[in-house]
Design goal:
Elements (H helix, E strand, L loop, with lengths): L4 E7 L3 H11 L3 E2 L3 E3 L4 E7 L4 E7 L5 H8 L4 E9 L2 H10 L11 E2 L5 E5 L9 E5 L1
Parallel strand pairs: 1-5, 6-9
Antiparallel strand pairs: 1-6, 2-4, 3-4, 4-5, 7-8, 8-9
Length: about 130
C-alpha cells in the first residue's frame, strides 16, 4: 500500500535559523517558507536527491507543533510521510485493520497541494505517520 518516502518532518523552534543551518552549513537547496493555516504550521522543504526534509514551525496559538515543542524545546523529528496511490482506499483499509486516523478521518490538502491524512503514533511504533496521495 505505501509507496515511496515523501519526507521526514522536523519540528523547529525557529524556522529561519533552521533554514539557514541547512542552507548555509549543509549546502542544501531550500524552498521559501510556506504558511499552512489549516495545519497550524509554516513549512520549508529541504530538497534531497531521494526525498525531502520538511521543517515545521508553529503558526498560531493552537498549532499542534506548539505542544510538541513544549515537550521538546530544541525540536525533533515530528512525523514521516509516505505516498499512497489512493488515499481514501488506504484510509479504509487501515481503519478496517484497526488503525486510527487522526482528526475527522477526511483528508485535508497538505503543503504539496495533495490530500493528506495522519495516523495515530500508538498504532505505528510511536511514529506519527502522514499519508499523502501521490
Amino acid at each position: 500500500m505505501i509507496g515511496r518516502l515523501n519526507h521526514v518532518a522536523i519540528a523547529v523552534p525557529n524556522l529561519a535559523a533552521a533554514t539557514a543551518q541547512y542552507r548555509d552549513t549543509l549546502g542544501a537547496k531550500v524552498s521559501a517558507p510556506q504558511q499552512e493555516p489549516d495545519h497550524g504550521v509554516t513549512v520549508v522543504f529541504i530538497e534531497l536527491p531521494n526525498t525531502k526534509i520538511e521543517l515545521l514551525e508553529p503558526l498560531g496559538e493552537t498549532s499542534p507543533i506548539r505542544g510538541f515543542l513544549e515537550k521538546s524545546p530544541a525540536g525533533g523529528i515530528h512525523h514521516i510521510c509516505y505516498e499512497v496511490d489512493d488515499i481514501l482506499a488506504a484510509r479504509d483499509k487501515l481503519k478496517d485493520a484497526g488503525a486510527r486516523v487522526l482528526g475527522d478521518g477526511e483528508p485535508k490538502i497538505g503543503a504539496h497541494g495533495k490530500p493528506v491524512l495522519f495516523l495515530h503514533p500508538k498504532d505505528f511504533n510511536g511514529a506519527l505517520v502522514e499519508l499523502e496521495q501521490a
